[in-house]
Each structure stands twice: as structure tokens, then as C-alpha cells.
Amino acid sequence: MKYFTIASLSLFCLSLAATTSVQATTSISNEPKSIALTIAIEPSSQITPFQLVSLAYQGMYRSQGIPGFASLIFGYHYQQITAKDVIKAAIAAKQLTPDTLTDRDYVSAVDTQLFSLDRPD
Predict the structure, then answer these.
(1) Residue 45: pLDDT above 50?
(2) Measuring CA to CA, which residue among 70, 67, 60, 71 is closest to residue 95?
């Protein structure tokens, strides 16, 4: 009985495969398609201090001299990296305007975010 069921099922699958046809069509377009991936942010103080520190932590500012991940935390803990350093890196990356450096509230908020990285609870 088991052999009969397996044989019947196999025969059914073979007949189904033999009678089923698929038609595939391909259309080729002469129009070039472009996909642009950008992570550039318009220069403005629209980046919140939280977003700025998050980007720094992820290593976004390595080319500006700000290390990412544990090295950022280590550098901040041992006062090798300050909030102004991170802001300067974002300015160099054209993600913040230069006047952000003189905004005491913004600098203080970035410092608070860096401090919260150093002191996880």
C-alpha cells in the first residue's frame, strides 16, 4: 500500500510537470536606470544631538578623525574626544553648519549624549 501511494504520487508529479508550460517574456528598455544611494544630509542643524552621536558611534566620521563604536566611548571617557570634536567632524562632512559650534545648547546636548554612551545603565 505504501509503495502504491508513493508510486501514484510520483506519477502524478511527473504528469503535472510534463503538461504544465510556462511562458516567460523579457522586455529590454533602452532607457538607462540609475539608482543613487546617498547618506549626505543637507547642512543644517536639523540633525539632532542624538542622531549626531549615533552617526559618530556607527563610524560615520572616521574619515574626519572620529573613531566609532568602543573607540569613541573610550576616547570620550579619557577626554581625547569632545562634543565639539564630533560637531566639527559633522561640519567637515557638510552635515552641520559652522554656526552650530557656537550654539551652547546644541554642544551641551551632544555632550550629554556622549556621556550617556559612556555610562550605560
Answers:
(1) no
(2) 60
Which residue is associated with the grid cell 539608482? 35
Domain ranges of the chain: 49-118
Alpha-carbon distance 47 to 30, whole Å?
40
59: left (phi over 0), alpha (psi -120 to 50) or beta: left
CB 115 within 8 A of CB 53: no
Distance CA 94, CA 105 (A): 20
pLDDT at 81: 97
Q: Which amino acid is at 87?
A: I
Contacts of 103 (CB under 8 A, 6+ apart): 45
Can you tell me the distance from the alpha carbon of 20 to that of 2, in angstroms, rounded to the nearest whole number? Answer: 27
Classify 18 as helix, strand or coil.
Answer: helix
Distance (Å, whole) CA 114 – CA 77: 9
Q: What is the pLDDT of residues 68-119, one digit of tens each?
A: 999 999 999 999 999 999 999 999 999 999 999 999 999 999 999 999 998 8
